[in-house]
Amino acid sequence: MREGAHPGRIAVYPAQNVPQDRAAGPCDPVHGVPPSGGSGRKITTREPIIQESERPEPEGFEPEATRRDADVAESSRANRGWWDRNADEYQVDHGTFLGDDRFVWGPEGLDEVEAELLGPPEDLKGKEVLEIGAGAAQCARWLAAQGARPVALDLSHRQLQHALRIGGSFPLVCADAGALPFADDSFDLACSAYGALPFVADPRLVLSEVRRVLRPGGRFVFSVTHPIRWAFPDEPGPEGLSVSASYFDRTPYVEQDERGGAVYVEHHRTLGDRVRDIVATGFRLVDLVEPEWPAWNSSEWGGWSPLRGSLIPGTAVFVCERD
């Protein structure tokens, strides 16, 4: 019997190790509705972080940035480690913008409340929803507030510890998006706001897994960095407005240690690549949203800024359905 995920516990599965127990139904302890009861201690992401990070960077360590190939295993290993080491800083830096129970699709601040890309909020009640790359599970928490039955999945155990810190009455699962530990036809909806897809070497593997666990007619909505951004420097100011690289260069961006081992990997797919990946894995693309930068948003987030956002898109949101 596998250990189930429930409030106060994170179910952990090895990266790229698909459990044999896929015959379990959608209400098994791993991804079914957790025991009823309190939603856990409600605190803010701005409070002091939980215990010291378990894998600090070596003192003085500065990774080398390069462009080179990185396969599925190396990408998964590097990004699990990177997010475990940097989850605390990420939640401190972006927790205020993300909130504890808000569903935003990207740095522009496109909110699911207005966008309704998963459907009208009133229609979410009772729906079983998988959030992939959930981080501290802000989106899953919002979904739960609408009456949905979410499961929050992330590669990083440290990110999910922050989900525990904030609280919630839904399952947390630590697993690789390319090997989802769920039975076929388990979920009505799936979503991913900048989770998994930008960091995997084989996006079709992830898309195929998501389609497998969705029920017929299910919808998968995911957001990623807009592909055009790869042609520009990752800078929020004027220096980020001039093309510096080929849009068609799919070579991954890699940060590596002194031995040449990857410690962070991000993969580029052109807009056409994304569409072909979606169609090849059996989804139907029903919408492609390119959020405009709103006047109210004065935030800078890495290379995203009001200056750049007023001129070029920063996020692409793909709305897909399984027939």
TrEMBL record:
Any one of the GO BP annotations: methylation
Annotated region described as Disordered, given as residue ranges: 1-73
Entry-linked Pfam families: Methyltransf_11 (PF08241)
Biased composition (Basic and acidic residues): 52-71
Positions of the Methyltransferase type domain: 130-222
Keyword annotations of the record: Methyltransferase, Transferase
GO MF terms, alphabetically ordered: S-adenosylmethionine-dependent methyltransferase activity
InterPro entries xref list: Methyltransf_11 (IPR013216), SAM-dependent_MTases_sf (IPR029063)
Listed name of the protein: SAM-dependent methyltransferase
Organism field: Streptomyces murinus
